Amino acid sequence: MSKTLLIVHHTPSPHCQEMFEAVVAGATDPEIEGVEVVRRPALTVSPVEMLEADGYLLGSPANLGYISGALKHAFDQSYYQLLDSTRGRPFGVYLHGNQGTEGAERAVDGITAGLGWVKAAEYVVVMGKPTKADGESSDSYDLGSSNSLDLQYDSDNKVRTMVLYFFSNDDKVPKFADVVGDTKVDKKDDGSQTAKWIDSKAKVSVTMSRTSGDSPMTVITLRLSE
Predict the structure, then answer these.
(1) pTM for this one?
(2) Are strands 124-127 and 90-97 parallel, antiparallel or unpaired?
(3) Which one, 22, 39, 94, 148, has least CB within 10 Å?
(4) CA–CA separation, 221 vs 208, rounded Å?
(5) Digit-coded pLDDT (tens) for 115-152
(6) Distance set, CA 113 to CA 13, 84, 95, 96, 121 (Å)
């Protein structure tokens, strides 16, 4: 009977994409038999998929601050379902950092220790800011209270995209009107909401989305166009 290896990744930049492709190539090597490799973005992986896996590979950008908000969300929505049920399962981690990965490594250590997962290999860490030929890079920061920030840079190391993640449903989470003004909010049948505001003169766009449920995730993305 084959085993399932679940790759949970947040891949916001070409540098992270290169690492992700190398991980997939290694995991799907024809010489490895009896392993089904499943790939899921951290923002869409489900608790059921986490529970059904036999082992895990976690991929994220990192800095001195924390793992990405997307990977944190993957654990936030499934942690208590995984607790005890997945104890003893193996995991591996790959990280890309521009200045340091200490905070991200500590975060993964804490989460996996709580779950009782077993480190199958040393973390794979790639350091250094990408060159212009490499394209964008990114940093991730823990803002406390289950909130986080991702910054994405262009080839000139200028911030082009800022993504705020809110994993709570309290008064600290901005309201749509506070972020996009009177822009129409698109409300889906499943209870999720999204809205986008564009200032063509300033060449900036702001997108806000909120998932449904008792513990919604709110994502605010500010992006500068060329």
Answers:
(1) 0.66
(2) parallel
(3) 22
(4) 6
(5) 999 999 999 998 865 443 444 566 777 776 667 787 87
(6) 28, 11, 18, 22, 15
